[in-house]
Amino acid sequence: MEGPVISDDHLEGYARILADVCATGRRLTREELESLRSQGERAAEEGHGLRGLVRQYLSATREIWPGLPRTGTDRLLAAIEYAVDAFAEGHERAQRLAVRQEEAARREFIDDLLYGRSDLGRLAERAERFGLLLARAHAVAVAQGDRLVDDTDPVTRRVEGALLARFGQRRILLTTKGGRLVCIAPGDQDEILAFFAKQAHAATEGGRVAIGQAHPGPRGVVRSYEQALNALDMAARLDLDDPVLRAGELLVYPVLTRDREAMADLVRGTLGPLRGARGGAQPLIDTLTAYFDSGCVAAEAARRLNLSVRALTYRLDRIRKLTGADPSEPMHRYALQTAVIGARLLGWPAKEL
């Protein structure tokens, strides 16, 4: 049982209030109610639970009762109700404030962590409060669905519940940023982020998840987070179908676009002639994309495009005549495929380069 937290002075004041109410029939004054609320706030700040506090109030009431006037029982019960209600209101008010302050501190920490702000030493100290040890390597996974989510969204709660049920109190931080789900986990525990990806994909009803590489230290979290975001961006621009993307498997794309001007030159020089085709360049670029994605198997590429093999072959021959490069020839294939990837990343031909 919790020890006493209501001071003798306060109980004496409480007794005077009840006695006066019984004698006069008045209601509790605004000052009396605010005093009770303040007492409830102080009790909450000291860490005392409301259930035990209410029990103490009722116990104090039982001790006071014999000395009260024998008239006005209804008024007395009403006064007790108002007094306990005011005390509980103050307690709950302090609890809500504490929750808001904790949420604000958590959000500030997450912003500083994911954006690489704040002093690193101070950031590491704050991280322990939220379950992370930044001295070790961490990896970050980011899930994006059709709609934005926040920390109170049912999707977030569902994924969080699944993670807690599976991994308990391991050092995992689940949060949201920019409407996306974000999970930070130790870099040597890949099973956590793999499980997160599965749960987030289901909870977002088919959303896409990207997992950054593991990197050490506070800056490593930022780097892994940025890798995951870049992977999501790449997947959207390349129209990748994979529900789970690993940044380490997509590193070739940032390399290809590091020199944007050189890539633009390659796209214009290699694929520019396709603009002269009937219907423009886009259908032929889609043909090359399906052809390369299917391992240069014409039948599979035709199936993906809902074409006959004969129609696909005609398109490939048209590409060869316009560009001078044969997609079936290994020497030409690499340049064509690189140019197609570049076109998709740069948004060509919809955007001028």
TrEMBL record:
Family matches, as Pfam families: GGDEF_2 (PF17853), HTH_30 (PF13556)
Stretches assigned to the CdaR GGDEF-like domain: 116-234
Residues covered by the PucR C-terminal helix-turn-helix domain: 284-340
UniProt-listed InterPro entries: CdaR-like_regulators, CdaR_GGDEF, PucR_C-HTH_dom, PucR_C-HTH_sf
UniProt family annotation: Belongs to the CdaR family.
Protein name: PucR family transcriptional regulator
Organism per entry: Streptomyces ruber
